[in-house]
Structures are given as C-alpha cells and as structure tokens.
Amino acid sequence: MVSFRNVTKRYAGGQAAVENLSLDTDRGAITVFVGPSGCGKTTSLRMINRMVEPTAGTVLVDGTDVARRPAAALRRTMGYVMQSSGLLPHRTVLDNIATVPRLNGDSRTAARRRAQELLEVVGLDQELGRRYPAQLSGGQQQRVGVARALAADPPILLMDEPFSAVDPVVRTELQRELLRLQQNLAKTIAFVTHDIDEAMVRGDKVAVFAAGGRLAQFAPPADILRAPVDDFVAAFVGRDRGFRALGFEPADGLTLEPADAVPAGSLGGAATGGWLLVTDDAGRPAGWLPPGVREPEAVVTGGSLFVLGSSLRLALDSVLSSPSGKGVAVDAAGRVAGLVDAETVLRRIAAGRSG
Ligand SMILES: Nc1ncnc2c1ncn2[C@@H]1O[C@H](COP(=O)(O)OP(=O)(O)OP(=O)(O)O)[C@@H](O)[C@H]1O
C-alpha cells in the first residue's frame, strides 16, 4: 500500500537523513519504524504525506507517486497523530475532532455527530467533548488526537511517537486500545517509535533503522528477535531477546500438574508439608503459603499468572516469578487450572526447536 523506492533525503548541507530506503508496507497492517534518535524515522514517515519531500526516489501509495498529488488533498487521506497531541487549544474537543470532516465539506452537524461517535470509539466519555484540550489529561489528549486522525475515515494512519509523552501505565493501555481498534478498523498504519518493546508488541512488521538513515532490517518482530541480521540490530533489540521471542511462541501442549489449591477460608485441614496454593472463593489464585505455615495472613503474593492459550514467555515467567517455583495456570475466567514447572516449559521450548 505504501512503498518506498530508493528514497533518499538530504536536508540542506547535511548528510543523508534517509539513505536509499526501499520497503513496502502491507495493507491493513501496522508497520513500525524503530531505531535510535536521529536515524530518519520521522523523516521517512513525513515523506509519506509530503510534509517532507525526498531528495531522490519515489514514495507510492497504492501504486501512485505521492508527488503527483496535491499535498493538501493527499494529507486529507491520511490521519496523522504526533507525540504532542497537536490539538488546537481554543477549540473544544468535539470541534478539534470535527476539523477534517469540515474541511472535507461535511456540515457542522454531521461533522459533530461523527466526532461524537469517535469519542466513543477511542474510549472517551461524551461529556469530554465540550472541554478544551488543556482540561484533559495527557492520555485523554492522545486519545482525542487518535479520534481526530480517524475522523475522515482515512485508509492510512501515520503515527509519530504517539504515546511517548504519557506514563508507562497509560501507554500500555493506549497501545492495547490501538490494537483493539485496529482489529475493527484495519487501517494501514505506519508507526514511529524509538522504544523497541513498543515496536515488538505493536508491529506486524518492524523496520529497524540505523545511524545515517539506513534500513538495517525489515521483518516481523518474531523474526527480528530470532535472527537479527547484524550486530547493530542484535544490540538494539536487547540482550534478553531470546526470552522475549518466547512471547511469540504459543504455549500449547504444555502438560499441567493438578493444583491442590485450597480456598483461604478452609485452611484448617490442609496438609502442612510443601508450598500450598491458596485461592479465593471463586477459585482464583490468592497466593502461596510456605511449607509448615497455614495461617491465612502468611500468604505470599506475587508471581505472574500463566493464562492458558497464551505464550511460552508467560508460562516461563509464571514459573520464574512464583514464590513456590511452580507457575500457576489460570483459565480465561482467572480460575486456577493447574501448575506448571520449569522442566515442562523448557522441554516444550526444546521440542519447538527440533520440530
Ligand atoms: N528540518 C530539518 N533540517 C535539517 N536537518 C533535519 C531536519 N529534520 C531532521 N533533520 C536531521 O535528519 C536526521 C534524521 O532526523 P529524524 O527526525 O528523521 O530522525 P528520527 O529517527 O525520527 O529521530 P528522533 O527519534 O530523535 O525523533 C537527524 O540528523 C536530524 O537532525
């Protein structure tokens, strides 16, 4: 859908910000541009909507050279979300979102109706529509930025570090929301970040840029983690890439041990040898009691949970983080489904490699 063909960009007097870039993004997929600061990610993104013009080469959208389309008209077919939400401070949230539909000729009423729908799509309360941007939290402003980018229903969304100004908890929430939105909207998204974890979670395909605007690798995240093309990419994706790659391996076929879990209210008759898994009344894990200790107040919490059907990374992490050394598997309702130990997960990893 978006294609770069031998694209180079040199700003006045400088060396290349982007050097001979060729890549094709997939329609309806998220393509992430990642790399250290100054390696040409933003420049590449902005050449898609002609905010920056290439020095050489061609950027194509659906096979048409973007240089042949008037820039203003081209930009209206692409939503653009940036790090600072870029909202107009003197317009209400609703009017901010309605800006592009108005430019596209929608009536004020129709544009506002569309804006109202979009508030809901991005998970914001209708009454926030009457506020001004300064009266919103950073995370809410970013959601409005996403709503505004979606307002004209463009097939392409360009996102430049859209979530980097918010705290990690809100960022994770916004990332999840974006994936959920994307499942319904199936936009073609180009997403810039310098955060490799964000790239790996978000991207259907990831373009890793190196210094000098050189594309070092362009592949699905699991492939980059498994087989980085060179030392730069290996170093950039980090030392624990082997562990992170397990996040892309489904944990099917793991044999669970039955869990002799006991509800917190019924500890009286519980055997005292070994660690004991304690649950709440609904059968959800509440923590572990160490060997010989059966007082409910001594429960040790902590330990991640392995949700059945998730990845080998979560399975192994549940083991590594468990006070008892056994990972707790839970079903979709969060109830204890069994226990898993390190040997079982490692055997499964080994079987995956040989199979
Ligand atoms: N308008 C400009 N004029 C001159 N040089 C520029 C201009 N914009 C960017 N550059 C230079 O081009 C190079 C690439 O910049 P770009 O913003 O594309 O990188 P980036 O990978 O997005 O960086 P960051 O992660 O820091 O935002 C940098 O060396 C930068 O200084």
Textual characterization of the structure:
This is ATP-binding cassette domain-containing protein. InterPro entries: AAA+_ATPase (IPR003593), ABC_transporter-like_ATP-bd (IPR003439), ABC_transporter-like_CS (IPR017871), P-loop_NTPase (IPR027417). It holds the Pfam family ABC_tran. This protein is an alpha/beta fold and 355 residues long. It has two domains: 2-248, Rossmann fold; 262-354, CBS-domain (Roll), CATH 3.10.580. The chain is 33% helix and 23% strand. It contains twelve helices and 16 strands. The strands form four sheets. It has a six-stranded mixed sheet, with helices on both faces. The longest helix is centred in the middle third of the chain and has 18 residues, at 168-185. The structure holds adenosine-5'-triphosphate. Adenosine-5'-triphosphate (ATP) binds next to helix 1.
What are the defining features of this structure?
ABC_transporter-like_CS; AAA+_ATPase; 355 residues; alpha/beta; binds adenosine-5'-triphosphate; 4-stranded antiparallel beta sheet; ATP-binding cassette domain-containing protein; 12 helices; nucleotide-binding; 33% helix; globular; Rossmann fold; ATP-binding; CBS-domain; 23% strand
Q: Helices, strands, pairings?
A:
Blueprint: E1 2-10, E2 16-24, E3 30-34, H1 41-48, E4 56-61, E5 64-65, H2 71-75, E6 78-82, H3 93-103, H4 108-121, H5 138-150, E7 156-160, H6 168-185, E8 188-193, H7 196-202, E9 205-210, E10 214-219, H8 221-226, H9 231-237, H10 241-245, E11 262-263, E12 276-279, E13 285-289, E14 305-307, H11 312-320, E15 327-330, E16 336-340, H12 342-354
Parallel strand pairs: 3-8, 3-9, 6-7, 7-8, 11-12, 14-15
Antiparallel strand pairs: 1-2, 1-4, 4-5, 9-10, 12-13, 15-16
The structure holds adenosine-5'-triphosphate.
Protein name: ATP-binding cassette domain-containing protein
InterPro entries: AAA+_ATPase, ABC_transporter-like_ATP-bd, ABC_transporter-like_CS, P-loop_NTPase
Family: Belongs to the ABC transporter superfamily.
